[in-house]
Amino acid sequence: MSRLRTIIVFFSVLSLSLMSSTIAKATSQVGERFIYNGDTIEISTQPLYTIAHDVESILKERYGLDMFEEMALAIARGYIGTWEFKDGKLYLIKLSFTSFKGISLQDIFGDKCIDGRVLADWFSGRIVIPKGKWLVYDGFSAHTYCKEEHLFFKKGILRKTKQVNNYITVPGAISRRYNQYFSYSYYNDEDDYERIDLEKLKVRQAIINCLNLHKQELKKKIFFEGLMYHDPITVTIGPEGLITEVWFYGEKNNYLKKLLQGLRFDIIRFRGKKYTERIHINFDYDGEYLYLDDDDLWCP
């Protein structure tokens, strides 16, 4: 592939990624299907991603098909792939498109499709296998769980595995073992979904309760009678479960941070790596106390 074509393909894939991310910004994405040790698991990794532009081109040039013609918000990439781990290798065994049916792997990959499957020799990366409850969600497609098994591939061949613990309990600390519930039905042509996160509400309420312990000081230094319009308070919880920053009205507020220094949270990781969480708290103020705003019943 020439350097010019490499550049063109790179920016085409980048544009596709940005478009999909923008369209599905507020919509949880349906994952890929992965057959592993006899179980079918939904994964957020997209092994087809690096060659998705090539697949799109083949569909257009050979068959006049547009994989984004009827793109679903919950499947912004235009397809769902089914993958299988067998004999130490990763195989693509099925591609289902949201815009059309009747295209086989043989139609796309030609001679690379052997016995109805294609060795994913273009894929070098990690596939995450959930082993515990859902812990962190990035708002689009990536998830992390309390416990995970990580499979590392190079050109479709498994190189190593790793067991990962993303949740560390701290005695006396506030729990962040989040429980995020989704209710949506793409197959019934419904794009709406609801998400209620009771544990995240408890974290927000703990912060509000701590601030209310200092209501007289707050009234003098931060708030005032009749305050009606205000920005949310943004609290940053660092990798060790301690509050590292508090933002209010677009700037750091060290006074509010000082008031919240007594709070300690348990430790969470994102796929085994240090994780910093920012929590936006919408609140009401009646001149004496802070209250969680109704908007926080639907957690972002």
* SSE series: HEEHEEHEEEEEEEEEEHHEEEHEEEEE
Number of domains: 2
Quaternary class: single chain
Radius of gyration: 23 Å
Through-space gap between termini: 43 Å
| Biggest β-sheet: strands ordered side by side in the sheet | 2-1-3-4-6-5
Principal-axis shape equals elongated
Q: Quote the average pLDDT.
A: 81
Task: Tell me the total number of β-strands.
Answer: 22
Note the beta-strand portion: 35-45%
Structural class: alpha+beta
Architecture overview:
The structure is a single chain. The protein is of the alpha+beta class and 300 residues long. The chain has 2 domains: 163 residues, no CATH class; 103 residues, no CATH class. It contains 6 helices and 22 strands. The strands form 7 sheets. The chain has a 6-stranded mixed sheet with strand order 2-1-3-4-6-5. The protein has a 4-stranded antiparallel sheet with strand order 17-16-15-20. A hairpin with a 4-residue loop joins strand 13 and strand 14. 22% of the residues are buried.
